[in-house]
Structures
1.
Amino acid sequence: MTADSETGAAAPKRACLHGWTKRQKCVLYFTIVLAVVTVAHIAVFIYVMVTRDTSEKTCLTKKCTMTAASLISAMDPSANPCEDFNKFTCADFIRKNPIPDGKVRTTTFLQYEDTFKLQIKDLIENHNSIGDPSVVSQAQEAYHVCINTTYHKKEELDSFKKYLQDTFGGWPVVEVKNWKQKSIEELLGQSEKLFGLSFLDIDIKNYPDDTSSYEVAIQALTSEARILNETDDEDNDEIREDEKLRFKAFDKFASLLDEGSDKKSAVGRTIDFRKMEDLKMKLVKPLDKNTTDSTVVMSVKELNSTQNKVNWFKILNILFESIHIFEGKETVVLKDPDKLNHVFDILKESPLSTVTNLIIWEVVLKQLMSNAGPEAEEIYEEYVNEVNKDRPFYLLSPKQHRWEKCLAWLEHIYPMVAARLFINKYVDKENKAAAEELVQLIQQSYKEEIEESKWLDEETKKRAILKVDSIRRFVGYPDFIFDDKELENEYKDVPIVKPTHFQNFLENQMIRYEKYREKYKIPDKESGDRWQSSPMEINAFYDPETNSIWFPAGILQLPFFDWKRLAAINFGMIGAIIGHEIGHAFDNYGSRYDEKGNLINWWTNQTREIFDQKAECFIKQYSKYCPEDRQAEEYKCVNGTRTVGENLADSTGLKAAYEAYQLWTGKHGKEKRLPGLEEYSPEQLFFISYSYLWCENMPSDKWTIYEMDSHSPMKYRAIGVLSNYEEFRKNFNCTAKGTMNRDSDSCVVW
């Protein structure tokens, strides 16, 4: 024990560096500082290397980030992709996107459509057209006239009355003294001329085996009239209710037009309506005798002598006025001559006033009332709402604002003007070239699939590949819309804008049908090389009669496509749509047309039989699909037979898109991943984006809208295709047979 201890005093603490020399201390300090700096440098190096590695593997551009956010927002990663891929990719989309008021569903397509319409509306209403070709301001003026019908409702209605007077001698229901009787030929000719509708269906059609030539085809009645042919006893109550609603609208509209001193009484209008309904029921009633549908080819002269209840020269020359004068030697195709004779027997024995009333009500008013001013439009909409309130397809047509109707009409009349404005403001011009590359690669993948097919014989393979090579492509928009002179020339026949929307609608309707009939006189050899659809469509098309595909600018936008994001996403979305449309060239309908669009059997009997067996596999597969909460009911959610063409196109289209993506990566190299979705390979993102395309929130009790649809419900468009596809199973390691792995039961075409 030390002295200090003994005295109890605390010994002073010795400094930790006590006894170190100054030099030793400096060395220590330097060593510590060096160590800290070294660690810091290592940390920075690791951070740089990690972030560089991440950025090299992850696409962090704005478009990639936006795409990732959309996919993540829709997905439920806790769901097993091998059990229900729709739930995996769309469960959160359904939870986060409630169905808007007035609608029965929401989808990725409908969400984009709402935004798209608002963009076009803003352009038409606010675009400064100074410096543009005059047709741009003309389109804007036509839109504003359409919008402002409320301020000119008397003028709108007067325009409508004048049309009835000039064309049909007036409407007998409201014209007691002033109705000027027209012949049956004038009534039918004028009705067909403006609407393509009457008690006849007179059309111009391609020769089935030579699509460069046209013929006049005639048959009795139209789909418009046949809709009313419900005569089963079990439907009598519904028929009577519909009749009451028709009379209600009939009476209201007659009252709106009937303002003269010789105003017809309510009793008189009731009698007119009853006669009209009786005539209609006679026309749609099936023939008493047993007849079979037949088609007869004859000259107009023979038509006029065999179907001699009317003067066919007069009807055809009214219809083709200024285009062609029929002299008798021209060929016509007559379908079901017995039915046509039956119709004219009834018409000839009926008072012309009743025939006129029926044509005006069933054809003219149903086509024109919604464009004859706000009062007429209100009557028509009330009638349509009441008649169709419980009918499935009507659920897809919610009430539109006036601007939506006017915008739809404008895009119909001036599609290239609307496209020019939209593309200039919203479309990246690089999208068109990038989309062209996708189309070409998908065509190439189709050809490779066909070439590798084990069941096609060599001759059929050659014809199928020739058909793919011969497809005409229309991608994005025609370039002429940016040439002022060419755009003006496109609309040289469109009349100047009139003070009332009814006049504008009527005149443009007349020009539209006249241009359609012009191809009879001068078959348009170049029509297959011109845009036949609006670039503003949010859709895509295939036409078997011209072997052409259209992918308008309207659908070449986010969320479906953008050249600045991952190609995997583009191929999974727009690529699958492109593949789908090309697939229609080989579905159960399109496969009957050859590379020129002629209706010719280019398959051998054996390959056609195998194809039909493959199609039957899809029919059986999709016919079994139904939501769990409806499986106990006697209800078929998907009609496999009705939807087989679309399901075939979905199947071949997705496979072609995936294989085209493999061609793309072979050319451009492997792609990065998406932020927040780094665990998924580009190939997996391809399938995730495909399923996202078909996300749909719709209660299963509203699935009746699909009863008459040629498409399957969106959920089954996704899982139906993917469950058949081996590459999907490989990428998600779905080894066990189940919902997403049909294994040996898989339906395939190529």
Note: The beta strands are 106-107, 200-207, 210-220, 295-299, 331-335, 472-476, 541-543, 548-552, 696-697.
2.
Amino acid sequence: MATRLTFFSSIFLVLLTSSNLVSSCVSPAISNHTFRLDCLCGPTHPPYAIPIYVEDVDLLQFAENLEYLEADFFLYGALGYGLDVVAPNLVIEGPPPIGGMKANLDNLMEGIITEFAYQEVGHLRALLLTVGAIPRPQLDLTSCNFPNIFDEAFGFQLDPPFDPYANSLNYMLASYVIPYMGLLLAGLLGVESGQDAVIRMYVYKRANITVYPYNHAVAEFTNRTSELRNRLAMCGIKDEGIIVPPELGAENRTSSNVLSANAYSISYSRTHPC
């Protein structure tokens, strides 16, 4: 599975692209040397279907599993219900998630996660139109699953078990865990990257706060999680926490790491070979 995942960025085609800028929509007024808008610019998406290679369809549909996870996790976290209520036509008769529940979010985070949730619904619609839909897999969103991930990241059992729904901070740390495979889909790149940036900025502002009731700061949670991602990927460094040694920071001069990037401050390669 890990080998298969490393091929993602090399086989993904552009799902949504921009056409050339329509310069004819702006024209100079001859009499007063000012500029005016002569027309309303049309949509920038191409008016024709973008071809997808047959051998790529199954990999794109595999990514739909992860979009289902994000959609239902965010919907339940913010609203207390999921795709079966919001967009039942998108689940393709897949079973409902197990254990989804509304998180104890403050007003700010509830609004943000609600937006994330509906964005993921839109992504599923885009994938359905592009490569066809697959039934939603059986998702287990119970709080008992996330402790296993953090226990593996830390190398020992946290006591008490980590509860992703307990508060806004816990929920955002759980969101940090979810793999943003949508970053590999060109048309979804902007929104998924934006979501990732919001999550990283949220936890960065709280980097030195101790996550109650554990004796570990937020920054350590992110570092341990990112290290786990790298171990599982078996492909070197592909992710970093929000605080890093200066030798891993921008131009070897910063410890802050709001945006994770390589030595040239370029997003990590997702192509094969690593």
Note: Confidence is low (pLDDT under 50) at residues 1-40.
